[in-house]
Amino acid sequence: ASPHRVGHARAPSEASERETITMPHFRVSYVVSAPDEAGAREIVDALCLEQTVELPLALVPPGTWINEHVVAKCESLRRRVAQPSKPAAGDVRWDAVVRYNDDTSGGELPQLLNVIFGNTSIKENVMVDDVMLSPTLLGKFLGPRFGTSGLREALGVPRGAMLMTALKPMGTSVEKLAAMAYDFAKGGIDIIKDDHGLANQRYAPYEERVRACCAAVKKANKETGRKCVYAPCLNAPAHLVVSRARFAKAAGAGAVLMIPGITGLDSARALAEDPDFALPIICHPAILGAMLGGGSEDECRGFSHKALLGVLPRLAGCDATIFPSFGGRFGFSERECLDILEGSRRRMGSMPAILPCPGGGMTMEKVKVMRDTYGEDVCFLIGGSLIGHSDDLVANAKHFMKIAGRTDLYGPLERAPGRSDHHAGRTHPAYATDASGDTLDRLKKQMATMEANLSKVTEMYLASEKARAEAAKHAAGHAGAHAAAHAASAPAPGSTLAPGVKAPPTPVEGNYSKVFHRPEDRPEDWTWERIPQEMYKQDGGSFKGCSRFELLGKRGESTVFHVRYFEVEPGGWTTLEHHRHEHAVVGLRGEGVIQLGPHVYPVRVGDCAYTAPGDTHQLRNESNAPFGFVCVVAADRDRPVEVDPSAFLKSAAAKHALQHGMRDALEQQAKHRAEHAKAAGAAGAVAEGSACEWKPGAKKKAAA
User: Fold this and answer.
1) Is there a catalytic annotation at residue 213?
2) Tell me, which fold does domain 147-406 have in CATH?
3) Domains 3-131 and 509-703 share a fold
4) Of 399, 539, 616, 680, which sits 20 to 30 A from 639 (CA to CA)?
């Protein structure tokens, strides 16, 4: 066959060019080593083919569908500002930005990594410098569950550097490791992790070690009032990673340590997205060093430090990333370490920043330099130096806290030297809440919000009870009438009932066939007999003016789906969010709009909308009448991830023209969200319920 007949050849048109440009893309920044621009261009052109179709250009020439929609395109190529300090002959560095169609990744992390570097990683003179995903592709990944702010809350450390140490060395007995864990927690170390070399060796078998260390840290926390956690290492065969993670959680672990270079980045992602697990994940860099470029020789190979130890662990759902700090025994430069911080913290859609954990042979004497370089939003990791500082591990830990700038040297239940007994148990002054006028105002607003929610919940509860009572009365009356009819003259089988005689009402609860009617005398009223109206959520920060009816799937039916009716008041909106499950929406009342990624579409009566897994979405009512729709969703589903409307707006505006009204709507939501957060204040937000109260796997467990 002629080369020009491979694929679906067609002449390029304006429509196809527009389609290519508007389809979502992600971009990868590469560093290329070549003596001149022509040589660099040759490397990048080969990369565009190698990373997608792995065919010569003659087989996928310009103008074919595959060339337009699948083959990567070089967007820019320029000489790099920073050149090697001691370049070899012909080693000139070039920055290249390559654009890939989102579809090439399949929306999955393993294939995304394959497209980013795949075969080209085997070649020389190319390094992945950075990865920039489109909002659409970024929405496919839930990312970290906790991140830096979530870890601060979980550990009870609202400010100051967090501290981590490791239980070591390999060969130590379970009893001694547990004793070390107790002392470190007693001394205030926030995260006590396994050394990455601890697995399931006979010296300290995994399950025995995890039980003992969890119990030791729990005992110390009970005595101090702290929230220190133990993080066992999940360096396990592939088929045991999840079971060991679940065992760790059941035993009381507060986090886990994963080694993605060995068990894979996607194993971390799967665990991070598992709603039944829900523990922080700490990424350890073992083996990943083989994939790093740069270094003391400034090699043009592998991944940059920012991409491999910052961006990718974050994309895989890790909440913290460990890396060797400059000045230690691993040779990372200060610039490379700061690049990791950038990858850990920069804006990535709605994903939270993750906690950088510099360590790697660092000593107590170097903590001051680390503080000056990294600031407070980090977790300092020191192992051997902390263990060897003195024989008193508790005192060593407190010394570590002090030089790290922490002021909470004693827990809420401890008595510091020179402090009387009546002070023990109080909140440390450094973290005490200032009961100022502003705080009291916020508390009053929060109480008002809670009272309003309680009033609405009470109203709905009373309506629900009334509906249940009427249903019971109706059923009892029907049973009595049925019995009386039978006592008199029951209709003979096969006879025809008189017009207007209705079938008995179907059950509400249980796995029975059933029908729920809207009130006949109020056709304008979108309610259902015997089904109570419920609040969309209890917290109004992410939505406005929404309610719901759980129609089918929540009352004992064996459906693999749930059918819900949602209603949005004029000017209201549902939560802007994304999740891994899909759902379908059918407009039933009035009209509204649906946000699907960066685009907005009208939804009128009878219109259908489908939300694909990972797509950021929201429904809004911009009309003057109620907007109601049915939503059909899987019974077993993952937890939605709320998206910050400000961040979403900024991301969408950077790459798309915004439809009329979209900017105003998202800015209004951001303002509403900020006002709600301010009203909640330091005392904490009003407890947030969910429109999706589910337990993943419940149907399967019930069936079993």
Assistant:
1) no
2) TIM Barrel (3.20.20)
3) no
4) 680
Q: What is the DSSP string of 227-271?
A: --EEE-B----GGGHHHHHHHHHHHT-S-EEE-HHHH-HHHHHHH
Say if CB 593 and CB 619 are below 8 A apart. yes
- Domain 509-703 carries which CATH code? 2.60.120.10
DSSP element (H, E) containing 29: strand 25-34
Please tell me whether the peptide bond between 3 and the residue prior to it is cis, using omega within 30 degrees of 0: no
Q: Which of 357, 379, 546, 631 is catalytic?
A: 631
User: Measured at the alpha carbon of residue 170, what is the angle toward residues 364 and 248, in degrees to the nearest 5?
Assistant: 95
Predicted confidence at residue 449, as pLDDT, reads 58
Q: CB neighbours of 569 closer than 8 A, spacing ≥ 6? A: 544, 545, 546, 621, 626
C-alpha to C-alpha distance for 201 and 235, rounded to whole angstroms: 11
Counting Cα atoms < 13 Å in the Cβ hemisphere of 200 gives 9
Query: 320 by DSSP, 3-state: which?
Result: strand
Query: What are the φ and ψ backbone dihedral angles of 36, each rounded to 5 degrees?
Result: -150, 175
The whole-number average pLDDT for the span 421-431 is 43
Contacts with 503 (C-beta within 8 Å, 6 or more apart), sequence order: none
The tokens describing 344, both together, are 């850990």
| Proportion of the chain above pLDDT 90, given as a percent | 65
CB 643 within 8 A of CB 578: yes
Cα(184)–Cα(164) distance, rounded to whole angstroms?
9
The domain spans of the chain are 3-131, 147-406, 509-703
pLDDT value of position 504: 86
Collect all residues with Cβ–Cβ distance below 8 Å to 271 and sequence separation of at least 6: 241, 242, 245, 256, 258, 277, 281, 317
Give, as one character, the DSSP assignment of residue 117. Answer: T
Tokens of 85: 């300090």
pTM of the model: 0.62
Per-residue pLDDT, 361? 81
- Above 60 in pLDDT, residue 382? yes
CATH of region 3-131, choose from 3.30.70.150, 3.40.50.300, 3.40.470.10, 3.10.150.10:
3.30.70.150
Picking from 682, 598, 617, the residue whose alpha carbon sits closest to that of residue 24 is 598
Residues sharing a CB contact under 8 Å with residue 278, sequence separation 6 or more, in sequence order: 145
